[in-house]
Amino acid sequence: MLDAWVAGVQGLLQVRELMFLSLGMGIGLVFGALPGLGGATALALLMPLTYGLEPFTAVALAGGVMGAVPMGGSLTAILLNAPGSAPNAATCLDGYPLAQQGKAGYAIGAAATANSLGGIIGTVSVLAVLPVAKQLVLLFGPPEFFLLSVLALITVAGSLSGRMLRGLLTGGVGLMIATIGYDSVTGTTRFAGGIEYLWDGVHLVPALIGLFAVAEMINLSVTGGTVSKDLRAVKITSMMSGVKATFQHWRTVLRGSIIGTLVGAIPGEGGTVAAFLSYSMTMQASDDPESFGKGNIQGVIAPEAAINAKDGSALIPTIAFGIPSGAEMAVFLGILVLHGMQPGPLMLAQNQNEIYGLVWALTGSCILASLIGVLLARPLGLITLVDSRIFVPIIIAVAMTGSYAVDRSIENPILTLAFGILGYILIRYDYPRLTIVIALVLGATAERNFHQSMMIGDGSWWIFTSRWMCLVLIAAIAAFLILPPLRARLFPPRKGTAPAGTGKA
Amino acid sequence: MARLLGTEISDYLPAATAAAVAAAYLGAAYQYAPEARATPLLIGWTVVALALLDIASRTQTGVGRTLAGWLNPVTARPRHGAGPVAYPIHKQVMAMVWIGGFVTAFALIGATYAIPIYVFAATRWRGGRPYLVCLLSAAATLAGIWLLFGWLLHLELYPGLLFGGN
Asked: What percent of chain A has pLDDT over 70?
């Protein structure tokens, strides 16, 4: 195992890999700073670019993006009260009041340090759990993998608080789309409507570019204006005192990181849950809870540590079981599949260099992005003032060119457009896109495992109850179907609260 | 806006569309051999059931409110369905038409011509930006895309159906 760790570091320290890691980090900071875009959109846009790269380089690029996005989001949350992504909304609660009091530098210094420390703790948890995950995955056969796919969809739908039914519905639509094309079990081409392009199924990369990048651009061009309306003449000073404050509040960092690590490993329970849970627990543990929301530095440290610790542990279900924990991980899963890596036991055994390279890339990017974010806080904040009327056509041109470049097929941009329109309709009607993505990613595998299970069980459904792991998974499915509605009845969402779990995705 | 069972008809559209698509999907699925249609039937009927539940949960009836309270509490709030701000439909359609136009141009005349024309046209006539800004945006976008895809990754930019593409 130590060999794989070292090989991962060595692989990452090559000039080409470092270059792409830095490129990913820069893109991650910018996309993280732009509210509404975030890591999933950045990865979807970059996915075609990775096509011409070695798998390790592609993983370094993706790690760079994922590690840097939270820092970009923190900056705009503190400076502009405009969180780059949903989890950063928790940082706004105390970060923005601090900026209004002229202590933006103090808040940014603390956020950057908490980001780095949270990232390191998240990495340690991945390194500890990955060897165990390998043993755990071997307990899974086709029935367990099928039930796990069902569980992933239901967990994610259940985590979209207040929108469980909508999440399940879009998940079902995603599964219908996933059955289009050649069925490897029976050799039949289904639902392709005579279109040769669809014989291979709906191409994942153009679909994801459409659902995230194009849909967001359509939305931005309808809403118009700049992403942020106002950048106050804030002075960014006293960053070192923010760094010092983070170390003084080491318990808050540790608590947030542990919460982030635990929540990150659960599919669907995204950074938003981790950030707000960490924030509220820190507030409850504080001697001065009244000061939260008015500029308490612990209100910045707690969510920031949780968000980055979550990124590390979210890799565990993604890599070990092929179950993405959120939209960003779902798109990242697409990158792995594009490069011939099939998450699960095979990947854990055969792609250790890429896995550990990714873990180091994520950690390195998180630490470096925090440093760069501190240095470039103001220019990064100014990015949000770019006019959408200029920004949208440029991103659309890049997205469509990237979509075509995946396999040089002119049908790809058309598919991207179709999914862009679908994604926009889902945004407007407040239906989640995350379950559709998870269904697209898992659909084919789930169907294959379903058929294999039925073959093993001679056509009997009892195969799904024949082993103890199946029973555990069925119990979990039942629990995740029952608990969210119960929670909704007992703790109804208040007016004006954002859906937790996965933000807009 | 016309209402049905206390809810704007447009609010039923996504779930009704999903149900209609699922019905068509089921119709097609029944044409396949039993093994090939096993999973599609499971998925199709599940989607129909979920869509009907979603439609029922949107009605302002006792059943609807109970369903929404349990399964879709967000929709239990007033003016559910559409986003917080209702944008004019023509504005939304135009945003898609511009991108559709670009994809058509991309397919017909290729990336090298379609990209600068689209970026210039969209920033100038849709965005109302000054000519110089539009020209610079168009040139910078084409240069950036060529550098990234053509030079760095050695990928050929699509030449267009009219210029030998396929």
From this structure: 89
pLDDT for position A498: 44
Under 8 Å between Cβ of A330 and A441: yes
Contact state of B155 with A405 under an 8 Å Cβ cutoff: yes
Q: Which residues contact B132 (CB under 8 A, 6 or more apart)?
A: none
Residue A392 near chain B (CB below 8 Å): yes
Closest Cα of chain B to A208: distance in Å?
16
Residue B83 phi, psi (nearest 5): -65, 180
Q: In this predicted model, what pLDDT tens digit does every residue of A198-210 receive, in sequence order?
A: 998 998 878 988 9
Nearest to A35 by CA among A287, A288, A220, A178: A220
| Mean pLDDT of the region A4-17 | 81
CB distance B122–A421 less than 8 Å?
no
Partner-chain contact B158 A488, CB within 8 Å: no
- Taking the C-alpha atoms of residue B34 and residue B38, their distance in angstroms, rounded to an integer, is 6
**CB pair distance less than 8 Å for B33 and A492:** no
> Which two three-digit tokens encode residue A350?
């055969």
Q: What is the pLDDT of residues A317-365, one digit of tens each?
A: 888 877 777 778 888 888 888 888 877 777 777 788 888 888 888 888 8
Residue A190's φ and ψ, nearest 5 degrees, are: -115, 145
pLDDT, position A497: 44
Burial group, residue A188, by CB count within 10 angstroms (0-12, 13-18, 19+): middle
Listed in sequence order, the residues at least 6 apart from A390 whose beta carbon sits closer than 8 Å to its beta carbon are: B123, B127, B129, B133, B137
User: A226: pLDDT confidence band, cut at 50, 70 and 90?
Assistant: low
Inter-residue contact A197 to A183 (CB < 8 Å): no
Question: Which of A173, A404, A420 is facing B99, going by the closest CB pair?
Answer: A420
Residue type for position B46: T
Phi, psi of B4 (to 5 degrees): -135, 125
Average predicted confidence (pLDDT) for chain A: 82
Q: By the 8 A CB rule, do B117 and B105 touch?
A: yes
d(CA A121, CA A114): 10
Q: What are the structure tokens assigned to B8, written together?
A: 């704007």
Task: Give this prediction's pTM.
Answer: 0.78
Q: Is the pLDDT of residue A84 over 80?
A: no
Which chain B residue's Cα is nearest to A158? B71
User: Can you give A97-144 as a three-state secondary structure string?
Assistant: HHHHCCCHHHHHHHHHHHHHHHHHHHHHHHHHHHHHHHHHHCCCCHHH
Can you tell me the distance from the alpha carbon of A239 to that of A261, in angstroms, rounded to the nearest whole number? 27
Phi, psi of A360 (to 5 degrees): -70, -40
State pLDDT tens for residues A179-197.
999 987 888 899 998 899 9
As a whole number of angstroms, the distance between CA A18 and CA A10 comes to 11
Helix A164-178 and helix B34-58, axial crossing angle in degrees, nearest 10: 150
d(CA A173, CA B108): 32
Gap between the Cα atoms of A106 and A109, Å rounded: 5
3-state DSSP assignment of residue B71: helix
Amino acid at A472: V
Predicted local distance difference test score (pLDDT) of residue A503: 42
From A162, A175, A394, residue closest to B74, measured CB to CB: A162
CB A203, CB A441: distance < 8 Å: no
For B81-114, the pLDDT digits (tens) are 444 567 889 999 999 999 999 999 999 999 999 9
Residue with tokens 């439609």: B55
pLDDT of residue B25: 97
